[in-house]
Amino acid sequence: MYLDIDQIKVVQLDHTSRCNLSCPQCARFHGSINKLNPYMPISDCTLDDYKIILEPFKDIELFHCGNFGDSIASPTFNETFTYSLTKVKKIKVSTNGSLRSKEWWRDLAKEGQDNLTVIFSIDGLEDTNHLYRVNSSWSKIIENATEFINAGGNARWYFIEFEHNYHQINEARDLANDIGFKNFTVKYTSRFADQQVKKVESKAGNIIVDIKNNKNQEVRSSIEDFTKYVLTTPITCKYQEQKAVFIDVEMNLWPCTWLGAPPYFHKDNTQRKSFQHLYDLYGTDFNNLRKYGWQVLEHDFFKEYLENSWYNQSNKFARLFTCGRTCGDKFEFSSGYGNNIKRENL
After folding, report:
1. Residue 305 lies in a domain
2. Are 113 and 90 in contact (CB under 8 A)?
3. What is the C-alpha to C-alpha distance for residues 39 and 261, in angstroms, rounded to an integer?
4. pLDDT in tens, 271-320
5. Pairwise CA distance, residues 107 & 113, whole Å
């Protein structure tokens, strides 16, 4: 059994697939940097969805993490946020920070108070952040973050290292401290290592290069047969340890954010293809909360399949490629865990 309902401490949610940016490694542009991923639905969670999501809980953390979108870009964010505050004690929102007015950010801080933390994903300074975060406005981000913090908001700055911004980490840290961020976090990106490339081109024509000391690249390069590694490596599920689950933009419940993404990847993607076995067994809506509510946790996928696919593989319990890739014992795919993240309280 993955988790019982009363064990869940964190619900991560992809509230929307809308975003104002065009980051080149984002799954919203999977398969092409010039157009939206055609397999990704343009959708938003509704107030009725939130009533389903939060009904069983009294004390959980709700985290708007954003697999495919930025939650504050959604037209349904305001009403669902207000409702969430009546049901949960902690809300985290991850955002690029370049949307909405400064008045909106001031009101958000006052409404959320101590129950809200906003993670601003800012990868550089005025001359570099927009190189990866295509279409972002530096002045707008700083204005919004400053307004939010000055109104009492709890803010964190997350900074992904690239070759073009690595030299600015200390200056960005000092700026974060001056503005009043509570935390400054530097992360390696795992996407270069996963794709086995050193650079990518953005829709705007910017060439984005990985940093030379990215440990993900070193470890990934040391694995000679990656498919064999993925299918045989011991699994330690990060989300199970955290007592967390993930809900995608169509209200499908998954154990984690990484398993919530491949169903919307290109049909030839290795991770997506490994899901076909699941769909052959159970159909494509076996985990949909709109149809089945939290009873989906009693489904065979959560009760038997998942853990057997980690520890006792068989023709039925075939391992999902994503599990070995993300939670194996050697390659640390995620940017937010282990040696790939460096947090500092300010």
Report:
1. no
2. no
3. 11
4. 999 999 999 999 999 999 999 999 999 999 999 999 999 999 999 999 99
5. 10
Helical segments of the chain, H only: 47-54, 77-85, 102-112, 129-132, 138-150, 169-179, 191-195, 215-222, 226-232, 238-242, 270-274, 276-282, 289-292, 300, 306-311, 321-327
CA atoms of 16 and 71, how far apart (whole Å): 6
Q: From the centroid of its chain, how far is CA 47?
A: 21
- Is 153 in contact with 118 (CB distance < 8 Å)? yes
Alpha carbon distance, N-terminus to C-terminus of the chain? 40
Tell me the per-residue pLDDT of 153-200, one tens digit each, with 9 for 90 and over: 999 999 999 999 999 999 999 999 999 999 999 988 877 877 777 888
Residue whose token pair is 């154990």: 255
Domain tally for the chain?
1
Query: Would residue 110 count as lying in a domain?
Result: yes
Helix (H, G, I), strand (E, B) or coil at 63: strand
Number of neighbours of residue 162 by Cβ within 10 angstroms: 21
What CATH number does residue 197 fall under? 3.20.20.70
In this structure, what DSSP letter does residue 206 have? Answer: P
Task: Give the global pTM.
Answer: 0.95
Give the SS3 label for residue 154.
strand
Q: Is 12 helix (H, G, I), strand (E, B) or coil?
A: strand
Evaluate whether residue 164 is within a structural domain: yes
99, 73 contact by CB (below 8 A): yes
- Secondary structure letter of residue 183 according to DSSP: E
Task: Count how many residues are written for the chain.
Answer: 346
**What's 11's DSSP letter?**
E
* 61 in Cβ contact with 91 (< 8 Å): yes
Residue 161 within a domain: yes
Pairwise CA distance, residues 141 & 157, whole Å: 11
For 44-138, where are the E strands, in sequence order? 61-64, 90-95, 116-121
Q: In this structure, what DSSP letter does residue 299 have?
A: S
Tokens of 189: 């990106």
Q: Which of 135, 188, 225 has its CA nearest to residue 342? A: 188
**Structural domain for 48, as ranges:** 5-213+238-266+334-345
Token reading at 53: 């999501």
